[in-house]
Amino acid sequence: MASVSEPITFREFCPLYYLLNAIPTKVQKGFRSIVVYLTALDTNGDYIAVGSSIGMLYLYCRHFNQMKKYNFEGKTEPITVVKLLSCFDDLVAAGTASGRVAVFQLVSSLPGRNKQLRRFDVTGIHKNSITALAWSPNGMKLFSGDDKGKIVYSSLDLDQGVCNSHLVLEEPSSIVQLDYSQKVLLVSTLQRSLLFYTEEKSVKQIGTQPRKSTGKFGACFIPGLCKQSDLTLYASRPGLRLWKADIHGTVQATFILKDVFAGGVKPFELYPRLESSNRGSCSLPEKHLGLVSCFFQEGWVLSWNEYSIYLLDTINQATIAGLEGSGDIVSVSCTENEIFFLKGDRNIIRISSRPEGLPSIEGGSRNTCHSSLESTPCYEFPGDSPQSLNTDLLSMTSSLGSIVDRSSTESPDQDSNLSGEVNGVLQENLDPEAFSVLEVPALAPDVLNEGNGDRPGILPCNRAGEIGPHSGVWTSLLELREAMEGSDVTELREESCPTDDGPSSGQSPCQEQDSSAEAREVGDMEPDDSQSTFSEAPFLNSPPVPSSLSWASHAEQRLLATSADEGSAEEPSKEQGFLMHMGGPGHLGSTPWHAVTDSDTGLKEVIAPECDLGTVGGRLTPPVSALAVCTREPRHEQPSRDQVLTSSDEEDIYAHGLPSSSSETSVTELGGSRSLQDLSQPGTDDTGLLKSDQFAESWMGYSGPGYGILSLAVSEKYIWCLDYKGGLFCSALPGAGLRWQKFEDAVQQVAVSPSGALLWKIEQKSNRAFACGKVTIKGKRHWYEALPQAVFVALSDDTAWIIRTNGDLYLQTGLSVDRPCARAVKVDCPYPLSQVTARNSVVWALTEQRALLYREGVSSFCPEGEQWKCDIVSEKQALEPVCITLGDQQTLWALDIRGNLWFRTGIVSKKPQGDDDHWWQVSITDYVVFDQCSLFQTIIHATHSVATAAQVPVEKVADKLRMAFWSQQLQCQPSLLGVNNSGVWISSGKNEFHVAKGNLIGTYWNNVVPRGTASATKWAFVLASTAPTKEGSSLWLCQSSKDLCSVSAQNAQSRPSTVQLPPDVEMRAYAACQDALWALDSLGQVFIRTLSKSCPTGMHWTRLDLSQLGAIKLTSLACGNQHIWACDSRGGVYFRVGTQPLNPSLMLPAWIMIEPPVQPAGVTLVSVHSSPNDQMLWALDSRWNVHVRAGITEEMPVGTDWEHVPGLQACQLALSTRTVWARCPNGDLARRYGVTDKNPAGDYWKKIPGNVTCFTVTSSDELWAVGPPGYLLQRLTRTFSHSHGAPSSHATTPHPEDLEDEWEVI
């Protein structure tokens, strides 16, 4: 603690850009864009928790610089209050506007701590907005108060995983503040403050005098180690008064602070912003105290309300500092020596006596500014795996090499010498011929300050040539040297960025510059190909003369840090797939380092990727070191598995210039550090591993060529991408990688015929449709005007369907390469359309109301068809498509507003509605993420630098751009889907897309109603077992714990047979095998029913003698073929040979105790699950972790040890003879891939479409489930295969997942 004598100033050292930029300004719900407001805040030394208006809780880990997101399921509603607690486990509680409270138990890397995120819900008691939360120090009690005066006590048992809540107190007015200590709850309401003794359940008011006026006046306990009777507290009162009271509510002292405030309050020093923090000259409200908290040292009190924050010293009766009259303070929180407050919609400010990250706060030098380059972890490049770090990059000019080598080999204690050397080397080598141009890229879009208008406009990289070649270098180097010599980096102001000097920063780096000479590829393009323009976002082309070396300003460096550290600190959970934690388009590794040789001077430019400059703990690390690591020989250590590996799609990302797009597909699953190319190139050891069928259900990710993806179109040989700025790019297919070339500018929509012979575009401002005379990638192109006033066009190989701006539909027929457009004929349509798709004499359309129509009677003789028909199937399934496309092999594909992908088969001109009476859903959730920031958000990303240059909020620029795109009331939706013979291509609108080149499995959950039961019957449980008749499976169904029936899985529509249960028992669990049905009742008794061919549902129940087990109570059973497994209430596991009531051998004791897995205290196994062939045993524990028994063989049926299976939490498992399926706590289903005898735990989980409350699997991998309303569902599947020319299998197969050894791209 600081002594009073030394003067302490509390101020804001630096805005929290790293935090605010990790939270999106808008999110996409379907195609609606929702603004995200920040609504609640709490902090401690480890975390910053921020609640938002969309029900998302953002949790920033201060040690690892990592942002995590947690959400409430169901309706999105604002979070009104959050409360962190650091005890044995880290906990965070959040309350919402409708009265929901959730507690998240966070994952900790420390041994013995929680390893899987868990959520507890407090529901049903509060009906109104939560206003206050308070924890007990041990995390076992949570108190929540709402604005109707209800206070709820929730007791958490983290070991058992249960949370029990009940109402303990009801006051007549809203709860303002809660505090808990030593079994006493301190409650402040709008009318009074009181003490609630939780053991005695008694209440005492603080003070005897009532308040003169109601208001948000708070109270808090004074911290200190003392017994309950010695507790003291502060309570604020109207009229600038503060009470100090004891545990009996007796007031010991009243501080009357009017005179103290009369002398004025010294304001906190805030970091300078563009707009002043006091908005205009609004009259200041009367001064009042508000909520209170003890802060920093004894006798100091922090008090706040929505207008002001005051820091008071009660001992010396003085104000230390404050903030007055701002009027929109939403939330305030303090740690030991920091005050954080949330102001307005989106501004979080940190006030402290020292900069963030100094050792006294963080404990140790974790976040201090390292001066040694060698010790900073900036080799965690998300570029390519180390084997692919090609020596091409080493061929930069020797001058840069020498800087790099010297700087990277210096030892830590020679830092001052080092910076001198860097200066020296640069000074010697500023000769234009010798120095290679190094440019720092603009920020990755998702870390740019979106929507904070309060920040000076910084151009990420200065325009080359605008500042002399020396000045920028020296300014930057001075900053660099300061940083390296340990001066506090946060002192560097933005003004020191050489580009930030007035009018010269008006030019935005977003403007495209066509310099074809520079953008020429290094070895791969013909010399005459001058059309290829350098157009990778958002770099400026560097001129052949040396430009200044400009580092981004320090604030941006910090942002780079937070983004770049995302991937390296911990392994992403498998559910998140490889899209990492932040949903923005600037995913790690989406742009590798490109070396582009300049044709005039032979210099090689190194263009850094968007988030690669390494930083430590949010501090600036000189980019030179980043280069150093990249240019030295590849590092010898294998990267750890949890580093993010991204594979690129060319053999060598450095040798080819810009147009090779890197794939975002992380390949940790493919053997650690190999990239996909290493695997797919002939000559490597793994030749032949990647056969097409082994990519079944796998999606590869690619980054787009421009600014977001508005439209995706694929033909047989090419893929076309249209970005938000109207840039049209093209790349040849299939090939390992994509080579983007700029094809055209100012395009609003693009269409291509399946063969690729026809290409049309709609021009941006004029809305005129043009057809391309001869589609050549190189050479001159001629465009013919085809039709004015067009908003959407679809091409088949010989027709064009055009939607006009007034909603009319037109058709042009008889088109070919020589006749790319023709006369247009109007086709009547009953509804206004937003999209059309046509192929092989089939035409489908999407209306503005998202209904689907198909055209009947279309043929080569009658291309316009006869009439439109509504698609009943889509109506029945309530499908709401966003875009549709016809694919090869007679398929129709749709992407809906929830981001789900569907297909139908058998779509031919004679039967355009196809063969299926439902849509098949394909699982893409592990790969393609739509929710975070989709279409319009991407426009915002694309325009970030315009906004910073013009110093206006990004949204305003985006709105202007949006108006430019949609100048008329365009109905057209972006097309984000394309299907050709090389794969299914899909984009989420961000600057990335995914392709599935292997087989895809479509899922449909069919509602089955057994004969004689009502269609509204609500089933509670379903279990499959091998049928006694040796053919197929039996299903056991029940609606409650007191009934049971059986039906054949092969003929589930038949009448079920009722099974009488023993009298007066409530069954808790069932397990079944071919010759027996086992049942476990609520008292732990076991009943067995023998099944036979002649009597498949058995004759009678036999109670099993469990006297051998003594007082043990069984809670879970599993039947294999001849082996029974059980689990008891304490987590013990038992094994028994023989499924019948009598043990046939009578030699062994019937039950053998098996040691359960070693678990943290309080975590026990709760259920066991066996495969029908006795080969596998899996188990779940009380924290929903999954375990597998290893070493099970014929000779050793009990196995040898337990293994934890990571990747997801499950509350139910189902095992077939070779596969494991899991149901997550939220009802999602997943399948475990890679389970074999040698690898009993398998390799990875993958989700499948569906959400259920209970499920089971037959021995042949046919899934049955009970859906949320209680329906009995059967999973049907259809495989879509890309085998060229072969029709897709039309038989509905219950188990297509035979590709057990396939590779999976995670």
Strand order of the largest sheet: 3-4-5-6
Runs in which pLDDT lies below 50 for 5 or more consecutive residues are 276-281, 360-694, 931-950, 961-972, 1285-1305
Radius of gyration: 34 Å
Shape summary? flat
Beta content comes to 25-35%
Which range best describes the helical content: under 10%, 10-25%, 25-40%, 40-55%, 55-70% or over 70%?
A: under 10%
Query: Mean of residue pLDDT?
Result: 74
Tell me the major beta sheet. 4 strands, antiparallel
Ends distance: 49 Å
Structural class of the secondary structure composition? Answer: mainly beta
Q: Using DSSP, what is the number of strands?
A: 82
Number of helices, counting only DSSP H or I runs of 4 residues or more: 13
Written description of the protein model:
The protein has 1306 residues and is mainly β. Helix 4 runs antiparallel to helix 5 (415-428), helix 4 crosses helix 8 (623-631) and helix 12 crosses helix 13. Residues 276-281, 360-694, 931-950, 961-972 and 1285-1305 have low confidence and may be disordered.
List the helices and strands and how they pair.
Elements (H helix, E strand, L loop, with lengths): L16 H4 L5 E4 L2 E4 L2 E6 L3 E6 L3 E6 L4 E6 L7 E8 L3 E7 L4 E5 L12 E5 L7 E6 L5 E6 L3 E8 L4 E9 L4 E7 L2 E6 L3 E5 L4 E4 L13 E3 L10 E6 L3 E6 L4 E6 L1 H5 L28 E4 L5 E5 L4 E5 L4 E6 L5 E6 L3 E6 L3 E6 L6 H4 L35 H12 L5 H14 L9 E2 L31 H14 L69 H16 L24 E4 L6 E4 L15 H9 L28 E2 L14 H5 L19 E4 L7 E4 L3 E5 L5 E5 L5 E2 L1 E4 L2 E6 L6 E5 L5 E4 L10 E5 L2 E6 L4 E5 L4 E4 L12 E3 L5 E7 L2 E6 L4 E5 L10 E4 L1 H5 L4 E7 L3 E6 L4 E4 L15 E3 L12 H8 L1 H7 L3 H12 L11 E4 L2 E5 L4 E5 L3 E8 L13 E6 L6 E6 L6 E4 L8 E2 L8 E6 L3 E6 L4 E5 L10 E3 ...
Parallel strand pairs: 30-32
Antiparallel strand pairs: 1-2, 3-4, 4-5, 5-6, 7-8, 8-9, 9-10, 11-12, 12-13, 13-14, 15-16, 16-17, 17-18, 19-20, 20-21, 21-22, 23-24, 24-25, 25-26, 27-28, 28-29, 31-32, 33-38, 34-58, 35-36, 36-37, 37-39, 40-41, 41-42, 42-43, 44-45, 45-46, 46-47, 48-49, 49-50, 50-51, 52-53, 53-54, 54-55, 56-57, ...
